[in-house]
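Subject: Fe-S cluster assembly protein SufD structure
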Amino acid sequence: MQQTQTTDTSAPVKNATYHNNKGDIFTSFNVDDFDVPQGRDEVWRFTPLRRLKGLHDGSFVNPVDADVTVDGADQDGVSVETVGKDDPRVGNVSAPVDRVGAQAWTSMNTVTLVTFGKDARPAGPVTVTINGKGDDATSFGAVVIRGEQHCEGFVTIRYTGSGTHADNHEYWLDDGAKLTVVVHENWADDAVHLSNQRASLGRDAVLRHNVACFGGDVVRLIPQVKFRDQGGDAEMLGVYFADDGQYFEQRLLVDHSEPNCRSNVLYKGALQADKDSGKPEARTAWVGDVLIRANAQGTDTYETNRNLVLTEGARADAVPNLEIETGEIVGAGHAATVGRFDDEQLFYLMSRGIAEADARKLIVRGFFSEVIGRIPVENVRNQLEDQIAEELRSTAL
């Protein structure tokens, strides 16, 4: 019997609204291709649009290029360049998935490109620092990290100072490449930062993507991973600690489109507030999407989000999503929790003579250590541990 082939003529819709599945969303490098986000749009429903200082609707002031410095570029096998967005090594992973990402691409003039050469194994990390330009400017930029075949690289991307900033990250890994990235949001508390962060993994490539979010008024990150071939391994880890008036949002996607790939997602957050401060409530939103497409047999994936609400006046939203189009997988699952202290842990520590306030702080530090302990560079781990300790010093638990 003759079979008639049909062609799917449906197209992804605008405003990053999901169409056929979690991975089929509209993307573009041109800001004019996106509608202005509204509060009822699914992917913007948590975000306080009025606090974005015009990044979402084009009303931002004084657009300038980002202030970027790079340390560790003098190591063997590492090259750092400032290139234009028309460079053929830029824009290969995916176009931005929302209007702010497209605005950053449209408005920027230069890209920071870090390349780890074939078989390179530099002894130390490369540190990319983006400094805020202050209240009277809005900065835009992009960071592209490329790992050539069988290299091993470590990159820290740090954000400091005050200002309004939007950017795009690209991580392109060739076959057998291994890349560890730490994105450290260490802004002043009045900063606004929105970022698209997209990764593409070749055969047997390994990505360890870490987020540490402590500073900023509004921070919204969109990390996404796609696999180009079999054997890819992606681990997406994150810690965040929100105080009075801070809003942190993480919106992730792991798109399994190739067989025999692995992913693991683990994010942990804590929130604290002072109801008498007059500031908006401390709030976080975590949305984790994992898509296993029909031809992604042998996939092994799990995603977890844990949140500790330390005081009244704080709110955490946790939305894990798992979409599976094939049953021929190793395993898949997800979990999310929002809660207070573990009373049994608290009782155990107090029964050993530790004061209640100190016991609570120890529990919080232990809560984060599962994530921070996986970062392979000691001084980066120590920086994050110190920052958590600093947050806890001002917490009345």
